[in-house]
Design a protein that fits this description.
Helix content is 29%, strand content 24%. It has seven helices and 13 strands. It has a nine-stranded mixed sheet with strand order 4-1-5-6-13-12-11-8-9, with helices on both faces. A two-stranded antiparallel sheet has the order 2-3. Strands 7-10 form a two-stranded antiparallel sheet. α3 links the parallel β5 and β6. It is globular and about 55 Å long.
C-alpha cells in the first residue's frame, strides 16, 4: 500500500515585500511525514488555482494549519477591524469550503489552531477576534520579551501553558486515554459560538474552547486550538493525534481498495 498523500494548506506571504508566495511551516510537514506516515503535499490557499474537487480526488487527508492571519469577520457576520488584521480571505474561501467537502466525502480532516477556527466557521460558528479581552480569560498569545519581540527560544514559545479538560468518553478522551491534558498556546482569535455540527470536546481552564469534532463525520474530523505540530515525536498528546490521523487515512485507503 502506498503512503497516504496529505494535502497541507498554504498561507499567503510576501517575500522581500515583492514576491507573493505560498508557504507551509516545516513542522507541519514533518509531523505528517514522520508521525502520520504520509506524504505531505502543499496546496495553495487560493481559490483561483486550487480546485477542491480535484484536490480531494488526489489526497487521502487534509491538514488545515495554523497561520498568522485571522479568519475574516464577515465570514461570521461581524464587521472587520483594522486592529485584528492581517486577514487572508483567499485561504478563508478555500479552507471553509474544503472543511465541509472533506466531511461530506469522508476524507480525514485535521484542523490546527486557525484550522480549528476555520472548521467552526465552516459549519456556521463564530469567533472572537481577541480571546484575552473576554473577562476571565488568559492571554493565549505566544510569549514575548519585555520589548515586545517574540521570544527567540522555541521551547519557551511552544511550552505547555494551560490545562484542557476533555469530555469524558468523547473522541479525544478515548484517543488520548485521559480526561485532562496540558498544551501550548499561540493564538489570539478563538471560538465564540460553536457551529451546528461542532461538538466541543476540550475546554481550557479559563473556558476557551480547545478541541472540537464534527458530529456524524464518517472519519477523523478533529480540530485543536493548540499547535499539535510541535514536537510530536516526543510530545505524547500530539503524537497520538497525528498517529490517529494517519490511521484514519490508511483505513480510508483500505476501504477504497
Amino acid at each position: 500500500m502506498r503512503k497516504p498523500v496529505v494535502g497541507v494548506i498554504g498561507n499567503a506571504h510576501r517575500v522581500e515585500n515583492r514576491f507573493q508566495v505560498q508557504m507551509v511551516g516545516e513542522r507541519n510537514l514533518r509531523a505528517v511525514a514522520e508521525v502520520s506516515g504520509g506524504l505531505p503535499v502543499m496546496f495553495a490557499g487560493s481559490p483561483d488555482i486550487t480546485d477542491i474537487g480535484a484536490l480531494l480526488d488526489t489526497v487521502d487527508g487534509i491538514v488545515l494549519t495554523g497561520a498568522r492571519a485571522n479568519v475574516h469577520p464577515t465570514r461570521f457576520n461581524v464587521d472587520p477591524c483594522e486592529a485584528h488584521e492581517p486577514y487572508d480571505t483567499h485561504r478563508d474561501e478555500v479552507a471553509l469550503a474544503l472543511s465541509v467537502a472533506c466531511v461530506a466525502r469522508g476524507i480525514p480532516l485535521f484542523g490546527i489552531c486557525r484550522g480549528l477556527q476555520e472548521m467552526n466557521v465552516a459549519f456556521g460558528g463564530s469567533l472572537h477576534p481577541e480571546i484575552r479581552e473576554i473577562p476571565g480569560r488568559m492571554n493565549h498569545r505566544m510569549p514575548r520579551l519585555e520589548n515586545g519581540e517574540i521570544h527567540p527560544d522555541p521551547t519557551v514559545v511552544f511550552a505547555d501553558r494551560h490545562d484542557v479538560d476533555l469530555t469524558p468518553g468523547g473522541a479525544f478522551a478515548e484517543l488520548l486515554g485521559c480526561d485532562k491534558i496540558r498544551v501550548n498556546s499561540l493564538h489570539g482569535q478563538g471560538i465564540l459560538d460553536p457551529g451546528k455540527r461542532v461538538l466541543i470536546e476540550g475546554i481550557a481552564e479559563d473556558g476557551t474552547i480547545e478541541a472540537i469534532r464534527i458530529a456524524e463525520a464518517k472519519t477523523f474530523a478533529l480540530g485543536v486550538q493548540w499547535h499539535a505540530e510541535y514536537d510530536p515525536q516526543h510530545n505524547p498528546i500530539n503524537r497520538k493525534l497525528f498517529e490517529a490521523f494517519g490511521q484514519a487515512m490508511v483505513a480510508k485507503q483500505r476501504a477504497a481498495a
